[in-house]
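wait is this the right file?? whatever heres the structure
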């Protein structure tokens, strides 16, 4: 009985190993066929018209900037991260309170001269939600 069990386990193990090793029996040429196409030919076929057509299309999209006013106009219409944040999340007004501190003595009897200081009304900067009107605040 033990002999049959050992033989069965051996045959299953041997069969599994033979099955797994049979996958490695494919040749390189069968797996990766070699053709006479170059990388440039493959790129031209995939891109539709090749690099020269792509370059021609890019040249058609380019515009000349004639004078300084057009150049300034292009710069003002450029989106930056700061503009996007300020446009989406506008800061709500946070008025400042200017306070004058009169000259005084500290606990150790050290004189402190008078000075002015500024306190914002809100401890944190408040932002409006996107689309919320801030003109009314």
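ok assuming it is, sequence goes like this
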């Amino acid at each position: 009985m033990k002999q049959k069990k050992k033989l069965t386990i051996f045959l299953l193990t041997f069969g599994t190993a033979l099955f797994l090793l049979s996958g490695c029996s494919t040749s390189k040429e069968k797996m990766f066929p070699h053709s006479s196409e170059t990388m440039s030919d493959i790129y031209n076929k995939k891109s539709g018209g090749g690099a020269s057509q792509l370059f021609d299309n890019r040249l058609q999209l380019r515009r000349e900037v004639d004078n300084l006013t057009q150049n300034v106009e292009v710069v003002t219409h450029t989106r930056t991260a700061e503009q996007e944040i300020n446009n989406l999340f506008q800061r709500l007004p946070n008025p400042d309170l200017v306070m004058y501190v009169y000259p005084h003595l500290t606990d150790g009897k050290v004189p402190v001269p008078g000075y002015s200081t500024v306190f914002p009304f809100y401890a944190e900067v408040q932002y409006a939600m996107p689309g919320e009107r801030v003109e009314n605040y």
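The helical segments are 2-21, 28-31, 39-47, 50-61, 68-76, 81-88. so i think its the right one actually
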